[in-house]
Write a structure and sequence with these properties.
Blueprint (H helix, E strand, L loop, with lengths): L1 H23 L1 E2 L10 E17 L8 E20 L5 E16 L2 E8 L2 E6 L2 E3 L5 H9 L2 E5 L5 E6 L13 H6 L9 E2 L3 E8 L1 H5 L9 E15 L2 E19 L10 E20 L4 E20 L4 E18 L2
Antiparallel strand pairs: 1-10, 2-3, 2-16, 3-4, 4-5, 4-8, 5-6, 6-7, 8-9, 11-12, 12-13, 13-14, 14-15, 15-16
Length: 328
């Protein structure tokens, strides 16, 4: 009996020692750039929500309408050069873009590729609408940037086009959504790291953030586990992020008409996100990513003339789901 107890105790200690050794095992998760390497991705985003407005001239009650959006973007990245530290110059090329935006009875369908762009509203198809030139620019020239092994963008040499088809629409944003920060050095399963990313509010909303500078997106990452996915050795990384902004005034992007004063204030802009990333450890690239986002935006616009003032308030609540996949 005593020998049996000794054997059991020995096995238990061995198991604990093995578990401790496994817990200490670390992996290096980093981008492994190769000059000339080309990667193709497909990004889809779908969202639903509501927008309510008060203060509309001639409407005493609050007006509320559903909103819906569907977006698909196909793009590729090409590594132009890699330095001794593993930092790369990368160019991102748009290949195909499609979006459907609905707000109440208003529905806009936009399509674009290297051959051109068009806006479809009902039976009307327009290839020369305001803003299409900006969309076409994304296909005419790539977005060029420098990125290190952790996925941090160090500089943007060429920002690509400027999306101005719809209010608050910037097609550089989908590319930025595919960027995330990897851990600094070897890391063990269960360990976490954080990222603080500055985002220009004025740039994102199509105006100037007077005195606001930028807002901060705080993201918390955790290496959940190491898995085999589609024959690839992958790091499964979970992420949670949040940004919260209150009482920020935005200067209008267009000058007001003579005798008219305008002021726009974000009373509240809150965004939370949660998602999962699958990163190929050996190849050093993202394979898949899914992110769910919730937005709660309250905005007030005041338009004043010498004899009257109009105050319009909007509340937008939106939930979106985005999927980024490597196209094999």
């Amino acid at each position: 009996m005593k020998a049996g107890r000794t054997a059991v105790l020995f096995l238990a200690c061995a198991a604990l020692a093995c578990a401790a050794a496994c817990a200490r095992k670390t992996v290096v998760i980093e981008h492994r750039y190769t000059k000339g390497e080309e990667l193709k991705y497909r990004l889809t985003t779908r969202g639903t929500g509501t927008t309510s407005m008060t203060g509309l001239p001639g409407h005493a009650a609050k007006a509320e309408m559903p909103i819906k959006m569907d977006m698909e973007l196909a793009y590729k990245t090409i590594v132009k050069s890699v330095d001794a530290q593993g930092t790369a110059e990368v160019e991102a090329f748009f290949e195909r873009f499609s979006s459907i935006n609905e707000s109440g009875a208003f529905k806009v369908h936009i399509e674009a590729d290297e051959k051109g762009a068009q806006i479809i509203q009902g039976e009307t198809v327009s290839k020369d609408a305001p803003g299409l030139d900006g969309l076409k620019a994304f296909f005419a020239k790539p977005m060029a940037f420098t990125m290190d092994k952790r996925g941090k963008v160090l500089s943007v040499a060429q920002p690509g086009g400027v999306g101005t088809i719809l209010p608050q629409m910037d097609l550089n944003i989908p590319l930025k959504q595919g960027q995330f920060l990897l851990p600094d050095g070897p890391i063990a399963v269960g360990r976490s790291w954080d990222e603080k990313r500055s985002i220009s509010l004025g740039e994102a909303m199509g105006g100037k953030a007077a005195g606001a500078g930028s807002l901060t997106l705080d993201t918390h990452y955790t290496l959940s586990r190491l898995v085999t996915r589609g024959g690839r050795s992958c790091a499964e990384i979970t992420l949670r992020g949040e940004m919260d902004l209150k009482d920020v005034a935005i200067a209008p992007s267009m000058p007001a008409a003579q005798g008219l004063q305008m002021k726009t204030v974000f009373d509240r802009l809150k965004q939370t996100m949660a998602g999962t990333i699958f990163f190929d450890i050996r190849k050093g690239c993202i394979v898949e990513m899914h992110v769910d986002t919730e937005q709660d935006i309250t905005m007030t616009m005041k338009m004043a003339k010498t004899d009257a003032e109009v105050k319009l308030s909007t509340v937008t609540k939106m939930k979106t789901g985005s999927d980024l996949k490597l196209v094999e």
